[in-house]
Amino acid sequence: MKLSMISILIILLSLLSCNDSNPKQNQQLQASIQRGAIVYEDFCMQCHMPDGKGVEKAFPPLANSDYLMNKRKESIKAIKYGLTGEITVNGKKYKTAMAPLGLTNKEVADVMNYITNSWDNKNDKMITEDEVSKIQQ
């Protein structure tokens, strides 16, 4: 009986430790998220607020944002080049212009990883500097 309980415990621990299919990417993602938090604080928080909820009718929310999570390329492009025109976020229309922030591709990737993994957003597919570099205006 003891042997089977030990075997079950080992199997359970193995399954839990294998939860990350790519531990290296997970470490890279966590580092990117940490860098992105700094970028967010410096460039984004003034409009989108510390909690990512934005300002109703002025600045769209990033928290639990359908636009951010479903329009990956458009979101990267907005951060990289700015945004003009109307967008719909969580069923509400926003038409406030966002100026280009002058961020590097790495900073854009980092802040995207931060905001897509904060405030009820969950993104397992890391946004890379290479992916950002391929987004054209």
Automatic annotation (TrEMBL):
<dbReference type="Pfam" id="PF00034">
    <property type="entry name" value="Cytochrom_C"/>
</dbReference>
<dbReference type="InterPro" id="IPR036909">
    <property type="entry name" value="Cyt_c-like_dom_sf"/>
</dbReference>
<dbReference type="InterPro" id="IPR009056">
    <property type="entry name" value="Cyt_c-like_dom"/>
</dbReference>
<keyword id="KW-0349">Heme</keyword>
<dbReference type="GO" id="GO:0009055">
    <property type="term" value="F:electron transfer activity"/>
</dbReference>
<keyword id="KW-0479">Metal-binding</keyword>
<dbReference type="GO" id="GO:0020037">
    <property type="term" value="F:heme binding"/>
</dbReference>
<protein>
    <recommendedName>
        <fullName>Cytochrome c domain-containing protein</fullName>
    </recommendedName>
</protein>
<dbReference type="InterPro" id="IPR051459">
    <property type="entry name" value="Cytochrome_c-type_DH"/>
</dbReference>
<dbReference type="GO" id="GO:0046872">
    <property type="term" value="F:metal ion binding"/>
</dbReference>
<keyword id="KW-0408">Iron</keyword>
<feature type="domain" description="Cytochrome c">
    <location>
        <begin position="31"/>
        <end position="119"/>
    </location>
</feature>
<keyword id="KW-0732">Signal</keyword>
<feature type="signal peptide">
    <location>
        <begin position="1"/>
        <end position="19"/>
    </location>
</feature>
